[in-house]
Amino acid sequence: MKKKYLPYFLVSPYLIHFAIFVAFPVGFSIYLTFNNWNIIAPMEFVGLANYKRLFSDATFWKSLLNTVIFLVIHIPLQIVIALFLAELLNQKIKFRGFFRAAFFLPVIVSGVVVTILWQQLYGFDTGLFNRLLVKVGLGKIGWLTDPNIAMPAIAVMATWKNVGLYVILFLVGLQTVPPQYYEAADLEGATHFQKFFKITLPVINPTIFMVVVLSTIGGFSLFIEPYVMTGGGPLNSTISAVLYIYKQGFFYYHMGYAATLGFFFAMIILAVVVIQKRLVEKDR
Amino acid sequence: MKRIFYYIFLFVGAITFLYPFIWMISASIAPENEIGNLILFPSHLNFNSYKLMFEKIPIARAFLNSMIVSSSITIGVLVFGSMVGYALSRLEFWGRDAIFYLIIFTMTLPFQITLIPQYILIVKFGWVDSYFGLIVPYLMNALSIIMFRQYFKSIPQDLIDAARIDGCGEMRIIFRILWPNSIPAIITVGILTFMASWNEVLWALIVIRDESMMTMPQLVTLFAVGGRAESQLGVKLAAATILALPIIIAYLFFQKYFIQSMASTGLKE
Predict the structure, then answer these.
(1) B248 at A interface, C-beta within 8 A
(2) So what's the ipTM on this one?
(3) Who is most buried in A139, A157, A208, B37, counting CB within 10 A?
(4) B137 with A21: Cβ contact below 8 A
(5) Domains along chain B with CATH numbers
(6) B102 vs B100: CA distance, rounded Å
(7) What is the mean pLDDT of chain B?
(8) Minimum distance, in Å, between the CA of residue A269 and any CA atom of chain B
(9) Residue-number span of the structural domain to which A268 is assigned
């Protein structure tokens, strides 16, 4: 083989894969948004009909609202718990390795397993949470059957699954703070609060930004949790972006409309991430 | 005194994250009347749930399918990722930077946009209900390329020059010279890829309809939602245990690598 072509040979697997599984799908996806197609019958050009339908589709708006509800609960909860546990792990303690490993366990286990387990915890009659509530003399809660509670319940579960990763990332952040800063602050008589807001927070700011971005992407990618637990119900209160794409595409075979949904959600994700990035950069 | 509170919080935290898994395993080996009790120690062992599981769903076949798919994807990602990573970090050629930025760009592309067209491709290729449909789209991974590129940059040029003088071709340089010196990168990429493909469920639900071709998470999911589990919680938990166990066992041995790998993907964002 000629030396000149060798680099291109080495990168060719990527370029071929890119052309087939990235570039073509993106182009085809945009093309599909102007068509109706069930794969079997011939494609039918419908102009902007899919977009018009999208804006008047109550379920699409509902899935967006559900994602917002999910994020509003999931992001702050995740940051507070992860910071708290990371702060504890950052003290001089024994068995740090054990605690770290325990917090991290749900991160590596399949979401299917986590969902099946939480389905039991959230069970109305036999679930752990309702048993505890009854034991302390309170009424049962319909964790997965009450439309106002089902999505928050899923957000709490997702926090439990992911928080271990952010504990580790915050811990890495906290360990980069030079101890001299705290010593100097102690000499000046700074309070715990002052130290946290003036020293710790600026250092871990990039990590917080990352939690927000990754959680946003995660919120729009939510699928298996509602699929297994609620099927999107009750009253569509847990239908997520991806679950709705899945239903339109693989339940009704509305490929054109499912592609429109996918395209739109992708644009929303990109826009949100860009806005978040701007806000953080402005902050610095 | 303060110390005691630290330990109390940490211990409560650890219990919160561990309890559901411990309960899952112990309930799956508990006698039927004790499964719902949320206790951690069954009065005696009972493998009836597992026996029923093997009777009801083709879990052994699904386990084999998942192993084949996850291993193939992992090997592919390691081989292709290091080839591209090597070219991008060690060779000079026209368009190199453009390709690098293309890879960075594709990493930020949300999968929601490619989901439907990728499925249509699989249909047109005739890969529905086949290993190809599950494996081929995942053989290339942008993050692994970036990780190999980064790691190969840290390897001294002398090593590569010496190999060239000895007449090594570029492929031999990658797999015989660089690989033995890149064990941490290989482990990181390997763990991330295997774990992600073992746990992947959405894509399998889309391209596989035939029960004998289903992967573990897919089969367990359909069993859990499909009503075939009926009221048999034990069988459901046994299936969940079998699905979780390979990753948990790997985690027990390579715990530090798992945590470092996952943290490194986060930190690169």
Answers:
(1) yes
(2) 0.91
(3) A157
(4) yes
(5) 1-46 (no CATH), 57-268 (1.10.3720.10)
(6) 5
(7) 90
(8) 7
(9) 58-283
Mind listing the pLDDT tens digit for each residue in A85-130? 998 998 888 898 899 999 999 999 999 999 999 998 998 888 889 9
Domain total for chain A? 1
* Whole-angstrom Cα Rg for chain A: 24
> Which residues of chain A make contact with B16, given a CB cutoff of 8 A?
160
CB of B168 less than 8 A from some CB of A: no
State whether residue B214 sits within 8 Å of chain A by CB: no
Contact A242 B112 (CB under 8 A): yes
pLDDT tens digits for B123-179?
999 999 999 999 999 999 999 999 999 999 999 999 999 998 988 888 899 999 999
B215 in A contact zone (CB under 8 Å)? no
Q: Which of B14, B38, B116 sits opposite A32 (nearest CB)?
A: B116
**Residue A263 domain flag:** yes
CA quadruple A224, A227, A233, A237: dihedral, nearest 10: 20
pLDDT tens per residue, range B38-87: 677 787 888 888 998 898 889 999 999 999 999 999 999 999 999 999 99
CA distance A28 to chain B (A): 6
Task: Say which CATH number the domain at A152 has.
Answer: 1.10.3720.10
**How far, CA to CA in Å, does A181 sit from each of A134, A169, A184?**
49, 21, 5
Q: How confident is the model at residue B263 (pLDDT cuts 50, 70, 90)?
A: confident
Q: What residues of chain B, 28 to 47, have a C-beta less than 8 Å from chain A?
A: 36, 38
For residue B145, give how far its alpha carbon lies from the nearest alpha carbon of chain A (Å).
9
Task: Assess if residue A5 is contained within a domain.
Answer: no
User: Is the distance from CB of B229 to CB of A96 less than 8 angstroms?
Assistant: no
Residue A109 is nearest to which of B120, B221, B247, comparing CB atoms?
B247
